[in-house]
Write a structure and sequence with these properties.
Layout lengths: L4 H11 L4 E5 L5 H10 L3 E5 L3 H8 L10 H9 L3 E3 L10 E4 L14 H10 L7 E5 L7 H10 L10 E5 L18 E5 L2 H12 L5 E4 L2 H32 L3 H8 L24 H10 L5 H27 L8 E5 L14 H11 L3 E5 L23 H6 L2 E4 L8 H7 L3 E3 L11 E3 L1
Parallel strand pairs: 1-2, 1-4, 2-3, 4-5, 5-6, 7-8, 9-10, 9-11, 11-12, 12-13
Antiparallel strand pairs: 6-7
Length: 439
């Protein structure tokens, strides 16, 4: 078939980098993308509803800890701009939507950020643009929710405007991978859409993985995250069994990991956190109901992982009991409250649930986290606390210290020397000691 002239113009502009790139949602996903596209020579315009965030980026700084301010400043010098003015969407050729897709309180998908963003940009769309959704979601979202909004002013997807789904695969603070070295899955609504999507990412990402449809790409992202959630659920259950049997689960995993095929090491912890793994599998659970399918593995893994903060709290209670103390009135410090090591992201962090259990049972709570100096405002959780520096005096003054996030910045030998009682949910301490309880 013959393509509309807008298609050829778009491909040419993306190829010779005269295209302008628009990134909607300047958070943990959007910022690295903006930096990468600026780095390879595109003009980049970022959009966000948060005026404070936009002002910070325009001043050459990022509120996200692991994103270097110097890189933002360099991107600004190269022409990167950020704005709250969505009417400027007509200025860009490629548009990437990097907005959150949380669950509501009934564990159902909340697509409001995606649909509202599409509604915000729709009046300003023009022929010759490609729109890529990067947010994790259920199969069918691009076709059912994004397409009608792109077409509401007379544009035709696949002819004058082009729609793709290309899921983000960021792994914050992972030194082994950067935005450009992580292969990128791209699915188009039509072959012309796929061509536009591949052209959009080709200059910035080292390896592209084209798939046959947006639904295939959407399900690919869910499989990746479900694989992780189910395997973490499995190893958390194994941890509980091993603990009852007096076996060190970390020694077991390390031994199993020497098998050169058929085994991938996953590690237990106090539960699941972050904006992906605890949430995304339930997008498929919800959509599968439409097809009469019950996703038992996903739900079982969710149950196991959701129960882990209670398991850790139970270990804390037992350890204090053994020392002749109750949680009520005891001074208890939680170490690491971000959802994973070496980041400042608090979303869905199991540490927060453990903190709530301690507080609700009368514990005198403190926390220490070099990545989270003040407990942030969260929709479901509230603590008026700031991070406490780990001195010998502070540690010695606690009745118990609970390690929930294994940041590299902690001096674990120092903690072991000065804390009277440690509840370790991350397998930091591999050798037994009188003041250490494995959780």
């Amino acid at each position: 078939m013959e393509h509309h002239p807008a298609h050829a113009t778009l491909l040419a502009r993306l190829k010779d980098k005269t295209a302008r790139i628009g990134i909607v949602g300047l958070g943990y996903v959007g910022q690295p993308l903006a930096l990468r596209f600026a780095e390879v020579g595109y003009s980049v315009l970022g959009f966000d509803v948060n005026a404070q965030l936009v002002d910070a980026l325009m001043a050459g700084t990022s509120p996200i800890e692991h994103i270097d301010d110097a890189k933002i400043a360099a991107a600004r010098a190269a022409g990167f701009e950020a704005t709250v003015d969505f009417s400027r969407i007509g200025e860009v050729d490629g548009i990437m939507l990097c907005v959150p897709t949380p669950l509501n309180k009934y564990r159902e998908p909340d697509l409001s950020f995606v649909t509202q963003t599409c509604d915000q940009i729709a009046p300003y769309l023009r022929a010759g643009q490609v729109v890529a959704l990067e947010s994790t979601t259920y199969p069918g979202t691009t076709k059912e929710e994004v397409l009608p909004r792109l077409e509401q002013n007379g544009l035709k997807v696949g002819e004058t405007v082009f729609a793709v789904y290309s899921p983000e695969r960021e792994d914050p603070a992972n030194p082994d991978f950067t935005t450009n070295t992580i292969p990128k899955v791209v699915g188009g609504h039509t072959p012309a859409c796929l061509e536009a999507g591949l052209a959009l990412y080709a200059q910035a990402i080292d390896r592209l993985v084209p798939v046959s449809s947006t639904e295939t790409a959407e399900l690919t992202k869910l499989l990746e995250n479900i694989h992780r959630a189910v395997n973490i659920g499995l190893v958390n259950e194994m941890k509980i069994v091993a603990d009852r049997m007096g076996i060190d689960i970390f020694e077991v995993i390390d031994a199993a990991a020497t098998k050169p095929f058929g085994f991938t090491a996953f590690y237990p912890g106090p539960g699941l956190g972050g904006h992906c793994i605890p949430i995304d599998p339930f997008y498929l659970t919800w959509k599968a109901r439409e097809y009469g399918v019950h996703t038992r593995f996903i739900e079982l893994a969710g149950e196991v992982n959701t129960a882990m903060p209670n398991y850790v709290f139970g270990k804390l209670t037992t350890a204090l009991n053994d020392a002749g103390k109750s949680v009520h009135g005891s001074k208890i410090m939680v170490l690491g409250i971000a959802y994973k090591k070496n980041v400042d992201d608090m979303r869905e962090s199991p540490s927060v649930e453990i903190m709530e259990l301690i507080r609700d049972n009368g514990g005198v709570l403190k926390y220490s986290d070099p990545h989270v100096p003040v407990f942030p405002k969260m929709r479901e959780h509230s603590f008026d606390l700031s991070s406490v520096p780990l001195t010998a005096e502070v540690l010695a003054d606690q009745d118990a210290v609970v390690i929930t996030t294994d940041h590299a910045a902690f001096d674990y030998d120092f903690i072991k020397t000065h804390a009277p009682l440690i509840v370790d949910s991350r397998g930091i301490y591999r050798t037994a000691a009188t003041n250490i309880t494995r959780a």
